[in-house]
Automatic annotation (TrEMBL):
GO biological process entries: ATP synthesis coupled electron transport
Superkingdom of the organism of origin: Eukaryota
Gene Ontology molecular functions: oxidoreductase activity, acting on NAD(P)H
Signal peptide feature range: none
Gene name of this polypeptide: ND4L
Membrane topology, as annotated: Multi-pass membrane protein
Name of the protein: NADH-ubiquinone oxidoreductase chain 4L
Organism of provenance: Cucurbita argyrosperma subsp. sororia
One GO CC term on file: NADH dehydrogenase complex
Main location: membrane
Family annotation (InterPro entries): NADH_UbQ_OxRdtase_chain4L/K, NUOK/Mnh_C1-like
Keyword Ligase annotated: no
The family this protein is said to belong to: Belongs to the complex I subunit 4L family.
Length: 112
């Protein structure tokens, strides 16, 4: 079979993949909505439980940002729109700006 004759959608002729392994692996994976829900719930719970310690409170915010970022990416791919991916590229910028602020608060809090 020449590469010119290959259909881009029919790649199984070039490299047959055992489908039983793929199906077994996919059955062990949790659904993405559940993962995002757990990340967001853990972030909210962490913020509510750590009301006094502001630097520690920024870590659950990071998990919430991760959940929001994955939501942007999943819905962007599913709706075939680039807007979610552009927002997802801005989330690490916000997280990078949040880290020095948390470090400054940490230094000012524990300055001797």
């Amino acid at each position: 079979m020449r590469p010119d004759d290959c259909d881009i959608m029919n790649l199984t002729a070039l490299a047959p993949i055992p489908t039983q392994r793929i199906l077994a692996w996919q059955s062990l994976r949790p659904p993405p909505d559940l993962v995002k829900f757990v990340l967001n719930t853990a972030g909210i719970r962490g913020i509510l439980l750590n009301r006094r310690n502001i630097p520690i409170m920024s870590m659950p915010m990071e998990s919430m940002l991760l959940a929001v970022n994955s939501n942007f990416l999943v819905f962007s791919v599913s709706s075939d729109d680039m807007m979610g991916q552009s927002f997802a590229s801005l989330v690490p910028t916000v997280a990078a700006a949040e880290s020095p602020i948390g470090l400054a608060i940490f230094v000012m809090t524990f300055r001797v």
